[in-house]
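Long-time lurker. I teach an intro course on protein structure, and each term I like to show students one example going from raw sequence to a predicted 3D structure in token notation. This year I'd like something fresh instead of my usual example. Would anyone be willing to generate the tokens for the chain below so I can use it in lecture? Attribution to the forum is fine with me.
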Amino acid sequence: MPKKICLAYSGGLDTSVALTWLAETYRCPVVCFVGDVGQGAGELRGIEEKALASGAAEVHVADLRKAFVTDYLWPMLRAGAVYEGRYLLGTSIARPCLGKAQVEAALERGADALAHGCTGKGNDQVRFERAYAALAPDLEVIAPWRIWDLRSREDLLAYAAKRRIPVEASAEKIYSRDRNLWHISHEGGALEDPANAPPEEVWVLTRSAKEAPDEPASVEIGFEAGSPVSLDGRRRDAVSLLEELNVRAGEHGVGRVDLVENRLVGIKSRGCYETPGGTVLAEAHRALEELVLDRDTRHAKDSLAQRYAEVVYDGAWFTPLREALDAFVKKTQERVTGSVRVRLFKGSATAVERRSPFTLHAPAFATFGADAVYDQRHAEGFIRLLSLPARIAAKGPSPAPEAPPELRARSRRAPVPF
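-- Reply from a regular --
Happy to contribute to a lecture. Here you go:
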């Protein structure tokens, strides 16, 4: 039996019930760890009092916003990681950041067990527990959703009502949401049926395209070695840059995704995601790479971007594979420096201007006008060599040449024993 448990606590329905359940079940102190990754003052206001009133022995709140952006979001952005072509991994990338900080808090406070409120059907249980395994393999892991006899959100609401646990969720408002500086996700309720269009009430960070301004706006993102460093020509710290970009892109309806994704555990799930600032940054970063990466490097990086996305989605952040991928990405980003202007309009974010001191785009070669640097006759030999396998295949198989007489005579001799 554990002597002290450190619970990853958000104050939402799952962790609020988990806190009381852990205290009642294990009869030991429960330390609540709260990681601020930019979920907003509304979610964090009064969270310590709420946890203490629900049975916590102590509460530790850590400001992880800077570390979250610079140590997790920016590496993922540089890698170009997008899961299944559309998901910008907002929930996934926060878990290793939170898991690492939770482990540190548990060890500092002498806890011998770690706990989380993730369901047994979701991806987050894997992400948290892979972080625990990599960073504190000797600590016991308790996952209430895999132990208790509560089987649904309705069961949790009834449990909370019986024990007077304060929760904001209700039978009428039962969306499961996760918010941080990068995005907010929405699951559950009417969204569980992919045949239902998302109700407009679901969205909280972005305007609908219909209500967005009728005139486009633009933002200019400055990059150094693949990381965003400025907004509209002014250097900004990572957190404030992303916060402002979220507001400005959200006003123009940028960043909405309605996705049926393949969970790691083998279930398809439908989620709606809002990633306004991240959508703009991903578009700008891609546009800058188009300018400065050579063809082979860019294609190799694109192929590994999908693998990087799977590493993040699967919770494999603290692994040699992620470190190796980061080493590759770091090399590719050495010249991803410059600025990109992105136009925001009615839900779209489109790169329209790109500049870099390391550009590989040479107008003297690319022009359709007259030039003095490219001899177009040279293309003939290049094309003939490039298409040689196709021309050989088109001619069909050639008859094998007849062997010379001396070789034919030699082949009739008896084989020499070894």
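Some talking points for your students: The CA atoms of residues 260 and 269 lie 5 Å apart. The radius of gyration is 28 Å.
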